[in-house]
């Protein structure tokens, strides 16, 4: 029925700060960026392999629940070849990461960090 994930949508409280984070800190490439005047909203499509992140701005969006165990999307996970190398690159760019852990079921390493709005992001060893 489903072949793959096309995109994940994220609404930022501060569009320029989040755009900088996802493009300059995480290094995601912009596919397209448009100002949607009728909605007073930016939409920026970012490439992540064959998937996309849609980064939006909206006037005065409500805050997200802060706990990752809240109902709904828990976190967004990125595949990496080396979790240690990814953590080193993120740390060099001022991003705090949790301690690297090992998944007891797969034996793969992973860790978490957060975007500027506190959205939990994970890096997971491929």
Automatic annotation (TrEMBL):
Signal peptide region: none
Alphabetically ordered keywords of this record: Metal-binding
Membrane-spanning segments: none
Keyword set includes Nucleotidyltransferase: no
Recorded GO MF terms: metal ion binding
Pfam family, one: Glyoxalase
Metal-binding found in the keyword field: yes
SUPFAM superfamilies linked: Glyoxalase/Bleomycin resistance protein/Dihydroxybiphenyl dioxygenase
Name of this protein: Uncharacterized protein
Source organism of the structure: Kozakia baliensis
